[in-house]
Structure formats: C-alpha cells, structure tokens
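This section describes the prediction task in plain terms. A model, or a person checking by hand, is given the sequence of a single protein chain and must write out its three-dimensional structure as a string of tokens. No templates, partner chains or ligands are provided. The sample shown here is typical of the held-out split.
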Amino acid sequence: MRDPGPICSGVSVYRLSDQRHSILESAVSQVHVTVSGKDKQSRDITLFLRRWLANPLQMGSIIPSSPRLGELIARQIDRQSNSFVLELGAGTGAITRSLINSGISPGRIAVVEIVPEMADHLQTKFPQTTVLQADAFNLPIELLKDTTTEIGTVICGIPLVLLSESRQRQFIQQVELVAPGRGFLLYTYCITSPLPYRTLGLEARRLAWTPLNFPPASIWHYCPKK
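The expected answer:
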C-alpha cells in the first residue's frame, strides 16, 4: 500500500522578495527594541522570528510552540525509568520548558540545536540541561554517550515533511543509533502523517492533536516496523 501524501495546515513557506524580506526584518528589529529587557517569552519570540527570516525551511513555523502542545508532548514521556529525553531541534526551548514544568528533571534532558545563537540561548535558559550545538542528521554519538545514560524518548521539532526521502532516512538512522527500537515523537502541523512511514519501514500512530497552537498541531510516534 502506498503512503498518502501529507495534508498540512499552517503558513506556507515561500521565498520572500528582497523588499518584503527587508520590511519584515525591519519590523522584527523594532519588536526586538520594544521587548528588550522585558519578559523572556517576548525575547524568545523575537529570536524565533529572526531565525525564521534567516531560514524559513529550517524553522518550520513563524512562532514557538504553545504551552498546550508542550503539555501534550510531556504526557507521552515514560516516567517509570531514569532514562534521558533527547530533544532534536529545540529552537528557543518552548517544549523543553514544558517538559521541565511537567516534572521531568532538567538534568534528564538533552537538547540538540544546530543554530549557534539558539544553542547559546538554550544553555543560558536551561543551565542544568545538556545542550549540544550540533546537527541532528549527524549526531555527536560519543558525546551523547558521555553526557547521557539510556535515551528513553526522542522528540523531533524539525520539519521533516519538507525534506527529501533520503534526508528523512538519514534522520531515522541517527535516531536508531542513539535510541535503538524506540523511534521518536514528531510534532507537526500536518493532519495526516507527515512522513511516508510505510516507504520508510516505520510504524506510525497519531497520539494527540491540539487546536490551541498556531498552527494547530499533531503529535505522531514513529518506530521501526517489527
């Protein structure tokens, strides 16, 4: 059986004209000045918007995930073991914050973020959490082994739906190296599966959906087919 194509909600990613990009960049700069020194959430949004302007495909959304989405993700974490939670593509830490607020020790969380500015932001924001500035498609396996014990849950905030099948396979292989057989949680703005899971040799299950996020989001669990 062939995989149906993904049906996604949300803001379309497109190439901005130089003029539109300049206007948006100026607006974000004004927001940055306005919120400077104010609440942390506003500064998170400003940083997120700046990174979205720099690379829309890398970000996937124009604003950080909502607390409601974070709560739903936190409910999927196995609390019975002392295993680590590995978050790939942590952004400004919206999901990380929800995990900690749900009772997961910050010392049991490791996050990987490819953007240096965001990785520095995460390290400042969560000093007790292991933050690695690295590529989720080329994970620092030995460093992860040195800083974590068993990884029980992998959370993905990377917009895999926008990537080629070969890149999706590369991501799955990396997850399998650090958390064999466990698969990963993927939050997405797609109504149907964002991944062609049959083609990729995966089992898939949609665990939750919330309209209280912009855009409305689903949480999927993918694991190697048994």
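For orientation: The first strand starts at residue 84 and ends at 88.
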